[in-house]
Amino acid sequence: MIGRDDLRAGVSAGIVSEAQAASLASLADSRRGAREDLAPGDEPFELFKGFNEIFIVVGLIILASGWVAVNAATMLTEIVNYRTQVITMAAVGAGVLWLLSEYFIRRRRMVAPAIALSILFFGNAVSGLAAAFSEIFMLAQEDYSSLPLPTFLATLALFVFWFRFRVPFAMAMIAIGLFAVAMLLAATSAGTPDSIDDLFLLSAGGPFAFITLALGFAVFLVAMWFDMSDPHRVTRRSANGFWLHVVAAPALVNTIALSLLDSGTAGSNLLLMAVLAFFALVAIVIDRRSFLLAAIGYSVALAFTVLGGDGAPTTVLSLGIVLLILGAFWEKIRARLLRLMPFLPLDRLPPTA
């Protein structure tokens, strides 16, 4: 273990510069918490470092609630100029959230407040930009053609936020924002979907399910780019990949699973299990339990909502058994699989224990 004293000695000896020593110390600090005492081969995951972060998150929620209440009360007194009022409050709110982020994220390196601030910043951007560019009377008539632009601009603002503060959770929100933009554009050109199932059924009319599937693959590829740039998972790039996998898996599984179940063919359930087995294979190879868990979690929900009493208990029982087996022998299974796949870029995948 190289400690602070070793870094100081290295600077004094001219082995590393002060900037390099500071970068190493910062990297070591960022790896503490979820990564500290982590078993070899386990997947880093961290939502908060201590109860003080929860304390701060509660404070942020109360602050945001009070801000919204003040905004609403002001709008009631100036209903004619509601657009200017919302834009002004959103601009001020963005400045306040940015300053809070500078302190809690950049300086204090807190995890839970970073997630909360990302959500609040995006919500604030959506409200301000929607007030600036959308038409409330068109929305009242279910005409959403004015929403794609403010939604895209809010997502772009969140990307700027991520570029400055590098909050991994914000990357997942960016993916969801782009998904919302694509769906709004599709609804503008092809009409509003009749039900939420149309977003995932490939057999339904309209391009919605194909957009969901395409975006799911795109998000998965971006997640793999982050993962393969950090195979040992010691930087925030790996955390970015984690949250993108959480978004990609439901988009892919929900579309494929619902389309298979909707087909009503005799072997649709067996085909669904085969698809889940393929997702499990991919998750093991890339060493992402989050990808598989998000996929199976969605499948369990689908089993109860779509299958109902016709096969749901058996399907859920089978998935539970598979998860327990994988959880107990993940590393052994992965090591054997990778030995059978020497054609993969093993140097860019997480090493086996």
Helix content, binned percent: over 70%
Strand content: under 5%
Shape field: flat
Q: Give unreliable regions as ranges.
A: none
Give the CA-CA distance, first to last residue.
Answer: 20 Å
Number of strands: 0
List the secondary-structure elements in sequence, H or E: HHHHHHHHHHHHH
The number of helical segments is: 13
Mean pLDDT: 79
Largest sheet: none
Question: In words, what does this structure look like?
Answer:
This protein is mostly helical. The chain folds into 2 domains: 49-192; 198-353, no CATH class. The protein has 13 helices and no strands. The radius of gyration is 23 Å and the shape is flat. It starts with a helix and ends in a 14-residue tail after the last helix. The model has no long low-confidence stretch (mean pLDDT 79).
